[in-house]
C-alpha cells in the first residue's frame, strides 16, 4: 500500500529490522553507530537520536550530558552514518490532555538543545552545533568514498575517508569508559580522552574533540515574581479567588446505568480524564458485614490510573498508579449505615498509552473486583456484577467552567482550601518584560488548569520522586540510559507549568483550576525564566573554536585556544565578572573556585575585555595571563552576568 502511493521519496520504518525492500529500516536510540541496515543497498540512518528523556509524574527528572551525545553523533558518522535526526531538538509542553504515557508530565522539555520555553540550552545547543560544523568540514571526503577502520589499541580505533585525489578526513575514537590515551596516527601524536572522538577534517589537525566543550554554558533559573500584596510589586499578581464545588457522584442528565463494571477509555472515548462509577446499596442492619467488630473494608481493583473513593459523599481513600505500574488497588476502612449507602468512585486517566504493540488493548478504569469485606469475620459482598450508574466527565466540564465565564462562581472572604473536588478562579496581570512565564503550583495537589480558556495541562506537584538515584554531577563516560543521570529526587516531578506569552494580556487574565485532592491556591505564584550566569572553561590543550579552524598550522598556533562569552539577547551586555581564574580552577559553572594556582591577572584582563560588550573572546595562553604554575596544563574559567 505504501509503495503504491508513488510518493517519489523513500519510505522508512524505525526499529523494524525486517522492513521489506524498498522500505529503509532505520535506528532509534541513544547510540546507533553499531547499527547496520538489512541491505547494503540501504543507507545507514538514525531517525531518533534521543537528546534526553521524558519525565513522568512520580519520577525524578532525567538529563543527558552533551559530551555523550556528541560522542554518539561522531561515532555514528565515523562508522558510515549518512543521516541523523534529534528526538527532541526542541522541547515542548503537553498542553491540554495531550500527554501520553500514561503518567508523562505536562512538560516535555526532554533536556533538549532548545528547551520547553524556546531558550537555547547551553552548552548542549552550542556544542552540538560545533559537532555538526566539524562533521560538515569532512563532508567532501565522506561523500566521495567508503570509510576504512583500523585499531589504535584496546577500545580505540581510527576511521579514514580518503580518496585517490587526495581528500582525507579521519575520526579517532576512544570508547574506554575510564582511561584517557595518547595515540599515534599518521606519524603524529594525539590525546584522546576516555569516551571521546577526535575529528580531523584533513587527517592531520583536530578540529574538535567531543569531550572538550568550547561553547558557553548558561545557567537559567526561574525567578519568582512578587505578589500583589507586595507594595513594590511590578510583576504578576493574582486578584481575589472565587470557587465552585464539584458535586460528588452523578450530577448529569447524560448519566446511564449498566450491569457490571465498564472499561473507562472505550466508555469515555477519551472526552475526559474523569468517569464516575456509582452504586447504592441497602443495608437492613442484619448483614454480617455490619456486625460489631467486623472491620469492614472497601476493596477496589482498577486498571488505572488514579482513583478516589467516596462513601455517602465523603472521601475515604484514594490510590494512584505510576509510570512503571499503571494499575491501582486500594483497600480502605469504611463505616456503613443502616439503610441506603452511596458508593461513588471517581476514576481518572493521566494520559494514554501511545506507543508499543497492542497498546489499545490495555484499558483503564475500574474493572474489579469491587468488594465489601469484613476483615475480621470473613464476610464479603461482591458489587462488581451489580447495576452501576456511570457519568463521563465532570459537572464543571459540562458547564464549561474552564472558560471562567459562568455566573455560578462564589466569592466570599473565607476561601475553602484543602478540600477535594473544587474549582477555583482568579484574575491576574501578566509579569512584565518578555521572559518566558510559568506558574508555580506549590501548595496544590492534583488537577488541571486553564489560562484565558486555554488548558495549560495537568498539574500534580503533590506527586514527588523518591529520594534515591540523583547525583550532583553525572559522568558522561560510559553508556547512557534514562535512569543514569537524574535530578529532582525527593521533589515534585513538575512544579512549574509553562504559560505561553501569546496567551496573555497585560491585565485581566483569567486562571481557572480544578483541584482533585485538595490544596491552597493562595500559595500559587508566577515565575519568569531568566539566564542568571554565563560561564566557560577552556584549557590550553582545547582545539580552536570550530569557526576559527584552518589547516594552516602557523595560523592555528597563532590563534590558540579561545574562551568566548556572548549574552543570550541582542540588547544585553556583560555587566559583571563573577569569577575568573587562569591556572587550575575547580568546580563547574555556578560553583567555580580557585585551585592550587591562579594568575592574579585573570580578573582584570577578563573585566577589561568583556564588561560593556555583548560578547568577548580571550586567548587562553600564558602570554596573556602569565604562568602561575609551570609544567602544568592550565585552564581559564570565567563566570559572567548579562543585563
Automatic annotation (TrEMBL):
<dbReference type="GO" id="GO:0004565">
    <property type="term" value="F:beta-galactosidase activity"/>
</dbReference>
<dbReference type="GO" id="GO:0030246">
    <property type="term" value="F:carbohydrate binding"/>
</dbReference>
<keyword id="KW-0326">Glycosidase</keyword>
<dbReference type="InterPro" id="IPR008979">
    <property type="entry name" value="Galactose-bd-like_sf"/>
</dbReference>
<dbReference type="InterPro" id="IPR031330">
    <property type="entry name" value="Gly_Hdrlase_35_cat"/>
</dbReference>
<dbReference type="InterPro" id="IPR041392">
    <property type="entry name" value="GHD"/>
</dbReference>
<dbReference type="InterPro" id="IPR000922">
    <property type="entry name" value="Lectin_gal-bd_dom"/>
</dbReference>
<dbReference type="InterPro" id="IPR001944">
    <property type="entry name" value="Glycoside_Hdrlase_35"/>
</dbReference>
<comment type="similarity">
    <text>Belongs to the glycosyl hydrolase 35 family.</text>
</comment>
<dbReference type="Pfam" id="PF01301">
    <property type="entry name" value="Glyco_hydro_35"/>
</dbReference>
<dbReference type="InterPro" id="IPR017853">
    <property type="entry name" value="GH"/>
</dbReference>
<dbReference type="GO" id="GO:0005975">
    <property type="term" value="P:carbohydrate metabolic process"/>
</dbReference>
<dbReference type="InterPro" id="IPR043159">
    <property type="entry name" value="Lectin_gal-bd_sf"/>
</dbReference>
<dbReference type="Pfam" id="PF21467">
    <property type="entry name" value="BetaGal_gal-bd"/>
</dbReference>
<protein>
    <recommendedName>
        <fullName>beta-galactosidase</fullName>
        <ecNumber>3.2.1.23</ecNumber>
    </recommendedName>
</protein>
<dbReference type="Pfam" id="PF02140">
    <property type="entry name" value="SUEL_Lectin"/>
</dbReference>
<keyword id="KW-0732">Signal</keyword>
<feature type="domain" description="SUEL-type lectin">
    <location>
        <begin position="557"/>
        <end position="643"/>
    </location>
</feature>
<dbReference type="Pfam" id="PF17834">
    <property type="entry name" value="GHD"/>
</dbReference>
<dbReference type="InterPro" id="IPR048913">
    <property type="entry name" value="BetaGal_gal-bd"/>
</dbReference>
<keyword id="KW-0378">Hydrolase</keyword>
Amino acid at each position: 500500500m505504501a509503495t503504491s502511493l508513488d510518493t517519489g521519496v523513500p519510505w522508512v520504518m524505525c526499529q523494524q529490522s525486517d522492513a521489506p525492500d524498498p522500505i529503509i529500516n532505520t535506528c532509534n536510540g541513544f547510540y546507533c553507530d553499531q547499527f547496520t541496515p538489512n541491505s547494503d543497498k540501504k543507507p545507514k540512518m538514525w531517525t531518533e537520536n534521543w537528546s534526553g528523556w521524558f519525565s513522568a509524574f512520580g519520577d525524578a527528572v532525567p538529563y543527558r550530558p552533551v559530551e555523550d551525545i556528541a560522542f554518539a553523533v561522531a561515532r555514528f558518522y565515523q562508522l558510515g552514518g549518512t543521516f541523523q535526526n534529534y528526538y527532541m531538538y526542541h522541547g515542548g509542553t503537553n498542553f491540554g490532555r495531550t500527554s501520553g504515557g500514561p503518567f508523562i508530565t505536562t512538560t516535555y522539555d526532554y533536556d533538549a538543545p532548545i528547551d520547553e520555553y524556546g531558550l537555547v540550552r547551553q552548552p548542549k545547543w552550542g556544542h552540538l552545533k560545533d559537532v555538526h560544523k566539524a562533521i560538515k568540514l569532512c563532508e567532501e571526503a565522506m561523500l566521495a568514498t567508503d570509510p576504512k577502520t583500523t585499531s589504535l589499541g584496546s577500545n580505540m580505533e581510527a576511521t579514514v575517508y580518503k580518496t585517490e585525489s587526495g581528500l582525507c578526513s579521519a575520526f579517532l575514537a576512544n570508547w574506554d569508559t575510564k582511561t584517557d590515551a595518547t595515540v599515534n596516527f599518521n606519524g603524529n601524536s594525539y590525546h584522546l580522552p576516555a569516551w571521546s572522538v577526535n575529528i580531523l577534517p584533513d587527517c592531520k589537525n583536530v578540529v574538535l574533540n567531543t569531550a572538550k566543550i568550547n561553547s558557553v554554558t548558561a545557567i537559567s533559573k526561574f525567578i519568582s515574581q512578587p505578589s500583589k500584596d507586595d507594595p513594590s510589586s511590578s510583576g504578576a499578581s493574582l486578584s481575589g479567588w472565587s470557587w465552585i464545588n464539584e458535586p460528588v457522584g452523578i450530577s448529569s442528565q447524560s448519566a446511564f446505568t449498566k450491569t457490571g463494571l465498564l472499561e473507562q477509555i472505550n466508555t469515555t472515548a477519551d472526552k475526559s480524564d474523569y468517569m464516575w462509577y456509582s452504586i447504592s446499596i441497602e443495608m437492613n442492619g442484619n448483614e454480617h458485614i455490619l456486625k460489631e467488630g467486623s472491620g469492614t473494608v472497601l476493596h477496589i481493583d482498577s486498571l488505572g490510573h488514579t482513583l478516589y473513593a467516596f462513601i455517602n459523599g465523603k472521601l475515604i481513600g484514594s490510590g494512584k498508579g505510576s509510570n512503571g505500574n499503571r494499575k491501582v488497588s486500594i483497600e480502605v476502612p469504611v463505616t456503613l449505615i443502616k439503610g441506603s449507602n452511596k458508593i461513588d468512585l471517581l476514576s481518572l486517566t493521566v494520559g494514554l498509552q501511545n506507543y508499543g504493540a497492542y497498546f489499545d488493548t490495555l484499558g483503564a478504569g475500574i474493572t474489579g473486583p469491587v468488594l465489601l469485606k469484613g476483615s475480621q469475620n470473613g464476610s464479603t459482598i461482591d458489587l462488581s456484577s451489580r447495576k452501576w450508574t456511570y457519568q463521563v466527565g465532570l459537572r464543571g466540564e459540562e458547564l464549561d467552567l474552564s472558560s471562567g465565564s459562568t455566573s455560578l462562581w462564589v466569592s466570599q472572604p473565607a476561601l475553602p482550601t484543602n478540600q477535594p473536588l473544587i474549582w477555583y478562579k482568579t484574575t491576574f496581570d501578566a509579569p512584565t518584560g518578555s521572559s518566558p512565564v510559568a506558574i508555580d503550583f506549590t501548595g496544590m495537589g492534583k488537577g488541571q488548569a486553564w489560562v484565558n480558556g486555554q488548558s495549560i495541562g495537568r498539574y500534580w506537584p503533590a506527586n514527588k520522586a523518591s529520594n534515591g538515584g540523583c547525583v550532583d554531577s553525572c559522568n558522561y563516560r560510559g553508556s547512557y540510559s534514562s535512569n543514569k543521570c537524574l535530578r529532582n529526587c525527593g521533589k515534585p516531578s513538575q512544579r512549574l507549568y509553562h504559560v505561553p506569552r501569546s496567551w496573555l494580556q497585560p491585565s485581566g487574565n483569567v486562571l481557572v483550576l480544578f483541584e482533585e485532592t485538595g490544596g491552597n491556591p493562595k500559595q500559587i505564584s508566577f515565575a519568569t525564566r531568566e539566564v542568571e550566569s554565563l560561564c566557560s572553561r577552556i584549557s590550553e590543550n582545547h582545539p580552536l573554536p570550530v569557526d576559527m579552524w584552518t589547516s594552516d598550522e602557523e595560523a592555528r598556533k597563532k590563534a590558540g585556544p579561545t574562551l568566548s562569552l556572548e549574552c543570550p539577547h541582542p540588547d544585553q551586555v556583560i555587566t559583571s565578572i563573577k569569577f575568573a581564574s587562569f591556572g587550575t580552577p575547580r568546580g563547574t559553572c555556578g560553583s567555580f573556585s580557585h585551585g592550587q594556582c591562579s594568575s592574579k591577572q585573570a580578573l582584570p584582563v577578563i573585566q577589561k575585555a568583556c564588561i560593556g560588550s555583548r560578547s568577548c573572546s580571550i586567548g587562553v595562553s600564558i602570554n596573556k595571563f602569565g604562568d602561575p604554575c609551570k609544567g602544568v596544563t592550565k585552564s581559564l574559567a570565567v563566570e559572567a552576568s548579562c543585563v
